[in-house]
Amino acid sequence: MLLPTFEFHEPLDLEGALELKRDLGENARLLAGGTDLLVHLKKKLITTQNLISLTKIKEMSLVTQEKNAIVIGACATMAQLSSTPIIQKKFKALKAGCDNLGSHLIRNRATIGGNACNASPAGDTLCALLIYDAIALLATSETKREIPITDFFTGPGKSCIRPDEILTGFRLPIPGDNSDAHYIQLGKRKSSEINVVNVASFLEYDPATGKVAICRIALGSVAATPIRAHKAEAAMLGQAPEEACFFAAGEKARREDCRPIDDFRGTATYRQAMVGVLTKRTLAAAYDRARGACL
Ligand SMILES: Cc1cc2nc3c(=O)[nH]c(=O)nc-3n(C[C@H](O)[C@H](O)[C@H](O)COP(=O)(O)OP(=O)(O)OC[C@H]3O[C@@H](n4cnc5c(N)ncnc54)[C@H](O)[C@@H]3O)c2cc1C
C-alpha cells in the first residue's frame, strides 16, 4: 500500500502551524506520530491535499510543571511520558496507559494528542485523561479555549476540535496526598491489540475519617466514547474503602454506567461482566497505592 501524494509542511513553531491550518482549513490534516493518520491515508479511509507536521515544534512535546498542575504538550510521545518522573510518581494510571499502547516502535512515535484526536473509545491514554480531570488546550491563530476532557469526545473517531484548531496539550491538576490511581486493560493479547475493555480508577480518602473523599472511574471500549462511570463514583463517596464497597461500585458500573455492543472482539455481555471485575480491581489497587500498601 502506497501513500497518496500530498504537500508536506513542516512548521518550526506553533504560530506557523496555526497559520497554515487557518489558511488550508479542511484541505489539510495534522500529522503527529503518524501511527493512525498514515495508516488511514494508506488504506484510503481519508484523503488530504496537505499534511502539516507538528513534529518539529519543540514546545508541543514538553511536559511542564505549574504550581498545582502539569501541562503535557500534545506531541509528547508514549515513551517520553512513561519515563517522565512526575508522570511516574503522580500519574501512574497515565503511565500504565502509555506503557500498554502498541509496541516499543509505536510508543516511540505515538503521541498523547494523536491518541486523543483519533478518539477511539478504546484509546489507551483516554481513561487516564478522564480520571485525572484533564483540560484540553485548543488554539487557532486568533483564539485559545480550554475544554474539560469530559466534553472533548463526541463519538467514535470524533472530537470537539474545529477545522482551524490545533490541540496544543492537556492541563492535569496534580493529585493530592492520600490519593492514587490504577489502570487495567483487557485485550485478546498483551500488546498491539485494540482493547476489549479498559478501566481506570482514581481514589482519594480523607485521612481523618478513612472514608472515600473523591472517586473518578473511567471506562473504555464500552460506549461510543470513553466515559466516566458516574453512578459507580457516587456509590463510592463517603464509604469505607474496602472490598464490599469496591464490589458494589463494580456492580453499578456494570449495570448502570456502561453501554457496550457486540463485536468480533467480545460480546456486550462479556464486556459488561469485565467492567464489573476491572472496576473493582482498579479501585482496590488505587486505594492500596494511596495508603502506601503497594507501588
Ligand atoms: C501497530 C499499531 C498498534 C497500536 N496499538 C495501540 C494501542 O495498543 N492502544 C491505542 O490506544 N492505540 C494504538 N494504536 C493507535 C495509535 O498508535 C495511537 O492512537 C496514537 O496515540 C496516535 O498518535 P499519533 O501521534 O501517531 O497520531 P497521528 O496518527 O499523527 O494523528 C492521529 C489523528 O489525530 C490528529 N492529530 C494529531 N495530533 C493533533 C493535534 N495536536 N491537534 C489536532 N489534531 C491532531 C491527526 O490529524 C489524526 O487525525 C496503534 C497503532 C498501530 C499502527
N-to-C CA distance = 45 Å
Which series of helices and strands comes N to C?
EHEHEEEHHHHHHEEEEEEEEEHHH
CATH topology tier name of the largest domain: Uridine Diphospho-n-acetylenolpyruvylglucosamine Reductase, domain 3
Bound molecules: flavin-adenine dinucleotide
Give structural notes.
- The chain has helices at residues 14-24, 37-42, 78-82, 85-90, 92-100, 104-109, 112-118, 126-131, 230-236, 243-257, 268-290; strands spanning 7-9, 28-31, 50-53, 63-65, 69-73, 135-139, 144-148, 153-155, 158-159, 166-173, 179-186, 197-205, 212-220, 227-228.
- 46% of the residues are buried.
- The chain contains eleven helices and 14 strands.
- Helices cover 34% and strands 24% of the residues.
- It is of the alpha+beta class and 295 residues long.
- The N and C termini lie far apart (45 Å).
- It folds into three domains: 7-53, Uridine Diphospho-n-acetylenolpyruvylglucosamine Reductase, domain 2; 60-173, Uridine Diphospho-n-acetylenolpyruvylglucosamine Reductase, domain 3 (2-Layer Sandwich); 179-289, Enolase-like, domain 1.
- The longest helix has 23 residues, at 268-290.
- A five-stranded antiparallel beta sheet has the order 4-5-10-6-7.
- The protein is globular, with a radius of gyration of 19 Å.
- α10 (243-257) packs antiparallel against α11.
- β6 and β7 form a beta hairpin.
- The structure holds flavin-adenine dinucleotide (FAD).
